[in-house]
Give the backbone structure.
Amino acid sequence: MAEAATAVRELSFGEAIKEAITEEMRRDSRVVLMGEDVAEAGTTFKVLTGLVDEFGKDRVIDTPISEAGFTGIGVGAAMTGMRPIVDIMFGDFLMIIMDQVANQAAKIHYMSGGKWKVPMVIRATMGATRRSAAQHSQSLHAWPSHIPGLKVVVPSTAYDAKGLFKAAVRDDNPVVIFEHKISYRKVKGPVPDEDYVVPLGVADVKREGRDITLVALSSMVQVALGAAEMLEEIGVSAEVVDPRTTWPLDERTLVESVRKTSRCIVIDEGYSRYGITGEIASTIQEQAFFDLDAPVRRMGAMHVPIPFSPSLEDVTVPSAQQVFEMARQMCNR
């Protein structure tokens, strides 16, 4: 008798995140969620609405406005057997918790000779174009990527968001996951009904091509796919590769793609200076130098505070048209 086909539904990015957390909390009673407005309000973005109704206030915990305080509680809870999810409302607030994350969570396993573990997930948002101004619109995923002992997840699709989040909860290391605010409702896609995980450190080829590789993260995956469609109209075949995690970084998949296409643009919504685009471009340049027909190019956010003005904010991050123009020039079209 043939196996029944796996049910697949279309979920939004936000629905996929909520489903991942719900399933992991049902699976493991050690998983708890804490943060500002996560219970009664279901987070500022209403992603987790109703979660407290199923699990109660002992496992979905509204905290005081003290990111440093409740992140520290999360580190301690993880060390003593829990698997906390710590919700940081805006990724811009990472600077408030960097001691707890970079000096405590990231180092305890090493400093204890492997006797202690910190299996916790830190949820943080990222991304501009939501009119949230300079202190609530940055994409700072390069910061934790720089710290040994941390894993960093940057999903772009509903399928990846659910699978990567579940993998993060089950990991025995501290994991920081960045969710793009615009993606919660705007990005939708097929998600299997059955339990699955997406392994950390495995990139995904979102679109195959032969002329140029577009490496993109988070919302820039959609931008790259849009540019690839435009390039197809002028006879340029673009491959779009999504690293999905900035650490571990799947260097092999990135390098193999560029060795095939001989050209590459790295696209990210974070700042270009000392950022993710520089790290990935350097990795590709070092390992695929003799396969390149042109230097690896980078596109990131402008090196300015994110403006509140919509007309100004929109031009601070790469667009599909800009990616198209750069790729067209690199391919001499």
Remarks:
- The radius of gyration is 20 Å.
- Residues 204-330 form a domain with the Rossmann fold fold (CATH 3.40.50.920).
